[in-house]
Specification:
single chain; about 180 residues; mainly alpha; about 80% helix; about 0% strand; globular
């Protein structure tokens, strides 16, 4: 029986990563609503990071983030952007995990998502500032924060919707068995 649980969980993780990759690729076709800020995007694939954070153990959710980041680099064929993306993803994951575990039900999933969106931008800017030895890059943070709040809100709401329906379908129960 334990073996079936492991297979179920591996398939679930693979599905999360695959869905994130599809959304990542589809997002390329969405016109960027913030053309004045280079590299800004909605980050819709983070919906699946949020779902992983609330349905898997921390190490397993971390694995989803790492797989997403590496596969995104391979799919986009842009290894140069990987260091920025990966830095943002790692800081975002750590911050969201800390927010979730520290505040529990006192902070909504939307709040956790907004914190993740802000920290993702911060992580990317810190990596860029270190890579080019130019701390003035951090001056983009206020503009990126203005974008992070609504996108984080949308990601959190969407993840909420998914998690509620996953609960109704019994997926959460299967994962915890």
């Amino acid at each position: 029986m334990r073996n079936n649980k492991n297979v179920y969980k591996m398939v679930y993780i693979a599905l999360l990563v695959a869905q994130a990759m599809v959304v990542f690729k589809l997002e390329e076709f969405i016109p960027v609503p913030f053309p004045a800020i280079p590299g800004a995007k909605l980050g819709l694939a983070n919906i699946f990071t949020m779902v992983a954070l609330y349905t898997l153990r921390p190490g397993e959710a971390f694995g989803v983030v790492v797989l997403r980041s590496v596969l995104s680099m391979l799919i986009s064929n842009n290894p140069g952007a990987f260091i920025y993306s990966f830095s943002g993803a790692m800081l975002s994951f750590v911050v969201m995990l800390l927010l979730k575990n520290t505040f529990g039900n006192r902070l909504s999933r939307i709040g956790v998502s907004v914190g993740g969106a802000f920290s993702h931008n911060l992580g990317q800017l810190l990596a860029a500032a270190l890579m080019v030895a130019e701390p003035r890059i951090l001056m983009y943070l206020p503009a990126l924060t203005i974008i992070a709040v609504p996108t984080g809100f949308f990601i959190g709401m969407t993840a909420n919707f998914m998690l509620e329906h996953m609960g109704k379908l019994g997926i959460m129960r299967e994962l915890k068995r």
